[in-house]
Amino acid sequence: MALLEVNHLDVRFALRGGDIQALRDVSFSLDRGERLGIVGESGAGKSVAAFSILNLIAQPGYIAGGDIHFDGQTLSAMSEHQLRQIRGHRISMIFQDPMMTLNPVLSIGEQMVECLRAHRRISHREAREIALDRLKQVQIPSPQKRLDQYPHELSGGMRQRIIIAIALLLDPDIIIADEPTTALDVTIQAEIMALLLELCEQHNVALMLITHDLGVVSQVTQRTLVMYAGRIIEQGPTKEIINDAQHPYTQGLINALPQMADPGQRLNQIRGAMPSLNAIPSGCAFNPRCDFATEHCRHVMPEFVTSGGCQVACHMVREMIEEAQHHA
Amino acid sequence: MIAFLVQRISHALLVMFVISLISFAIQDSLGDPLREMVGQSVSQEERDALREELGLNDPFLVQYWRFATHALQGDLGDSYFYKEPALSVISQHLPATLELVICAALIIILLSIPIGVYAAIKPRSPLSKAFMGVSIVGISIPVFLTAIVLIQLFSIGVTVHWFPQETGWGAWLNDFFSTDGGMPSYGRGESLVHLFGSWDTNFLTLNGLNHLILPAISLASIMLPLFIRLIRAEMLEVLQSDYIRFARAKGLPMGRVYFLHALKNTMLPVITVGGVQIGTMVAYTILTETVFQWPGMGLMFLEAITRSDIPLIVAYLMVVGVIFVVTNTLVDLIYGLVNPTVKLTGKK
Amino acid sequence: MTPSTTTTQVVPTRWQRFRASYLFYSFKRDRVAQISLLIFVALVLAAFSAPLIAPTDPYDLAQIDILNSELPPVWMEGSDPAFLLGTDAQGRDLLSTILYGARVSLLIGFGAVMLQGLLGILFGLLAGYYGGRIDAVLMRIADIQLSFSTLMVAIVVGAIFKATFGNLMFGEVAVLILILIIGIAEWPQIARTVRASVLAEKSKEYVDASRVMGFGSARIMFRHILPNTLSPIFVIATVQIANAIISEAALSFLGLGMPETQPSLGSLIKSGFDYIQSGSWWITLVPGLVLVVLVLVVNLLGDWLRDVMNPRLYKG
């Protein structure tokens, strides 16, 4: 059994004009030590999926259906109190913007010690020792000094290192990283990503990496999951998805990478924009932007079909497979 | 730290300078020391001679300089009415006002924080909605009217005949809605305990506290809902922030998330607003003291206005100015200590 | 189909556009806002038509009979049905004095807010648009004034006016003086809000565009920036009406406002307060209730507007 299993997850936002469905029928799993990438444009539901695992979706969002299993326990059935034992202890998170993630009025040391002492019965001094050790692991210069500093005294890259250190404090099984490098300077993005990767390998921590950057996903993860308008549309081994994407949307994403265009040529864009969640088209949600869309695509929601190691939700892919079988 | 203090103190001195200029201008244009000193019977020549002797014909700036140097030595002139130094008149009235303000501030702090935090944590609960409803009504009732209503209810008493008196439940309900009255509504009472100097306190006897309670509630009545609403609004905003979500993601107990992570950030703007409200509080003491005939500085000031006791008016303005400046500096200092992003070096 | 119907576009009238707006939509859904507006409009109409609808003219000495003094409201024993809300110590009909008093209170409230709006918009635009020294001086004055609290400033200015003019003169021009006092005391609120929105608007492209097109500063400020700062001004002004009415009542209660010969709600409460110990609570508490209702509905409308327009207000 996988370490983390998400089955048929439905998340909704209760708004005045009625509910809006942010995630529909999202299922995936994560093995111990595995690295999974979740990609998609902003608004596709990647972050909602990440936050719903620990039931940390912002108001007025709520989990409307499905279940989440972790290491033999059912997270989706747990009380807030039981979930608290998991959060930061067995599953920890790294947020997008390090400038907003640390509490501005508490010292770094305080924010690390409190996390340790919320889960382990240890003295303040012992907790500080562990915190110091973790700060050394994330290669922060003069770590002893950092413990007594406040967030505003540190640069964005430094803060994200500290947040990684906090995520690693209690040797978790899973780290969920929500666009951990997006808000940083381009020059240090690679550094932070490499550090995160190294530490996850070292401690055998499973990583769930949420990003819109297919380049990062191809370098870091073993498996990839592509989301569009609150649904998963394609998932499988990262190599297969990058080299041989089946879904027209995934193909579009890969073609849009700058390295796929010839120098001096226009970048390849996917035309149109992702629909907002309260106006998702019928049938395949991608059909208005798809070059291959047929009348069928406009009316019937595609089911998953297996193509090689991948699962794809696309009518065209299914037809091609059926045709190939027919000829064989 | 030192640079911060120097900056704050120079700012305070500037404000005091402005206040003293205004005060002096009031004295210069409204007060006629001659009239008070010599009366009507003195001839014009003698008046002119006296004017010259007193320096009243000197240029404005020279006269201001004299006023300011005297003020710095604690000499703000003699009250026309009390016939003694204005500052000593004020020092006799200051303790009463301070005790009233302290008591009201205690009520505000002890109630607004828990209520505001509760209303932010549970915004949909009926109790929160009730608190917010009562607080907007509270903001709409002027201080002096609250005071009058309190006097009617708890000092004079109200007898209600809304329900049939002959039935048992009716009598009980009538009784329930009626109030006895009997609370003191006038002055500070007799049983004050002498502390030191001109300070007699209400805090040490039951009778003294009894006299203090209605005025203090009145004074707190308009600020309390204001702070409840402010704390709730700020806390709601803070609770939306990423660092609160991160604190929850770390698995911290909710008590720590709310009362350390959220409250500390909530209180920063509240402290700033609190500093500004000290000024409003002083203004409201004038109203409260008038209704309850509380022998403090506010009542004294109002009487000085009706008696055209210019030196006392000017002295009051100067003293209130000093109180504002000192408390605002203190509030800035506290803010700097609570908020680590303000380095106490004079720069933000 | 005639050609005319296909070519003429239907231009929505102002009323139609208003009915389609979000403001109107949320108003239709908000029961509290509806009731508040209803009460407010009713009070304003009643107050300003006081000479027409009041049962008696409280300033006409011929209509007052001292024998009618301190009669309770009609629902209490010993009342006279001619006086719905009872009478005051001079035998004046309380309902009439309240209607006339509310008129004075509202007049001063509206007038003061108009004055502070004028000052606030002017100084706020100047400070925000020109910045530099003008901004520094204006905002420092605003800071000092606010740290003294507006009511305190109003009391001091009121005291100075009173001492300068003397009681008699003061009574004649009291309405104007009170508008002046409260307007001067409260302008920083609006000025700071206007300044904050000007700073936000100034950095936007359309202002650069108008400057490039060669429009003068005054035109840019009043024609381009000001309309975009209106919604926060509108919200603040609503709340300020409530504040101005309370300030006026406070000043009058202290004897620094309207004289008893021409009472506002505040002076009615003050003159009634002397009789509360003798049991005639209605002389002070009935005008008090009217004052509270008036201020409350304005505050509720202000709250509603703030929620709907959601402007970025200046904090602190």
TrEMBL record, chain A:
Native source organism of the sequence: Terasakiispira papahanaumokuakeensis
Identification of the protein by name: ABC-type dipeptide transporter
Record's keyword annotation contains Magnesium: no
EC number: 7.4.2.9
Localization: Cell inner membrane
InterPro entries: AAA+_ATPase, ABC_Ni/Peptide_Import, ABC_transporter-like_ATP-bd, ABC_transporter-like_CS, Oligopep_ABC_C, P-loop_NTPase
Enzyme class: translocase
PANTHER family, per the entry: DIPEPTIDE TRANSPORT ATP-BINDING PROTEIN DPPD, OLIGOPEPTIDE TRANSPORT ATP-BINDING PROTEIN APPD
Alphabetized GO MF terms: ATP binding; ATP hydrolysis activity
GO cellular component: plasma membrane
Family under the similarity heading: Belongs to the ABC transporter superfamily.
Keyword Transport annotated: yes
Catalytic activity: a dipeptide(out) + ATP + H2O = a dipeptide(in) + ADP + phosphate + H(+)
Automatic annotation (TrEMBL), chain B:
Keyword Transport assigned: yes
Keyword list, A-Z: Cell membrane, Membrane, Transmembrane, Transmembrane helix, Transport
Cellular component annotations (GO), alphabetically ordered: plasma membrane
TM regions (residue ranges): 12-30, 98-121, 133-163, 212-231, 266-287, 313-338
ABC transmembrane type-1 domain mapped to chain residues: 94-335
Family annotation (Gene3D superfamilies): MetI-like
GO biological process terms on file: transmembrane transport
Membrane topology according to the record: Multi-pass membrane protein
Subcellular location: Cell membrane
Pfam families referenced in this protein's UniProt entry, alphabetically: BPD_transp_1, BPD_transp_1_N
SUPFAM superfamilies: MetI-like (SSF161098)
Family stated for the protein in its record: Belongs to the binding-protein-dependent transport system permease family.
Protein name: ABC transporter permease
Organism taxonomic ancestry: Bacteria, Pseudomonadati, Pseudomonadota, Gammaproteobacteria, Oceanospirillales
From TrEMBL, chain C:
Pfam families on file: BPD_transp_1 (PF00528), OppC_N (PF12911)
GO biological process, one term: transmembrane transport
Keyword terms of this UniProt record: Cell membrane, Membrane, Transmembrane, Transmembrane helix, Transport
Compartment annotation: Cell membrane
Keyword Repressor assigned: no
Residues annotated as domain ABC transmembrane type-1: 102-302
InterPro entries in the record: BP-dependent_transpt_permease (IPR050366), MetI-like (IPR000515), MetI-like_sf (IPR035906), OppC_N (IPR025966)
Membrane protein topology class: Multi-pass membrane protein
Entry-linked SUPFAM superfamilies: MetI-like
GO cellular component, one term: plasma membrane
Similarity field: Belongs to the binding-protein-dependent transport system permease family.
Protein name in the entry: ABC transporter permease
Native source species: Terasakiispira papahanaumokuakeensis
